[in-house]
Design a protein that fits this description.
- This is Antitoxin.
- Belongs to the phD/YefM antitoxin family.
- InterPro entries: Antitoxin_Phd/YefM, YefM-like_sf.
- It holds the Pfam family PhdYeFM_antitox.
- Antitoxin component of a type II toxin-antitoxin (TA) system.
- The protein is α+β, with helices and mostly antiparallel strands.
- The protein folds into 2 domains: about 40 residues, YefM-like fold (3-Layer(aba) Sandwich), CATH 3.40.1620; about 45 residues, no CATH class.
- Helices cover about 55% and strands about 15% of the residues.
- The protein has 3 helices and 3 strands; from the N terminus they run βαββαα.
- A 3-stranded mixed beta sheet has the order 1-2-3, with no helix packed on it.
- Strand 1, helix 1 and strand 2 form a beta-alpha-beta unit.
- The longest helix is centred in the middle third of the chain and has 25 residues.
């Protein structure tokens, strides 16, 4: 379950740092009852960044398939084998 804390809590920097390190997801910061910021540990950020890259690559692959810019795997392997004498 995501953690939501008011911006006034950011004064407790050591506690916030520990909270981020112990959380496996971002922590949402509110200001006047509305979402304002998101903070997270470097480890959590790297996980989200990696997954974003994976989703981007999947999206690119799906677009290539939809546009017909793909080849059958066996035909590609045969072409590479004959080109390089394998």
């Amino acid at each position: 379950m995501p953690r939501i804390i008011p911006i006034s809590e950011l004064k407790k920097t050591s506690e916030i740092s520990e909270m981020c390190k112990g959380a496996s997801e971002p922590i949402f910061i509110t200001k006047n009852g509305y979402g304002d910021m998101v903070i997270m540990s470097v480890e959590t950020y790297e996980k989200y960044d990696y997954m974003s890259m994976v989703y981007r690559k999947i999206s690119e692959a799906e677009k290539s398939i939809a546009e017909g810019r793909v080849k059958e795997a066996l035909k590609s392997l045969d072409a590479a084998r004959s080109k390089y004498g394998l």
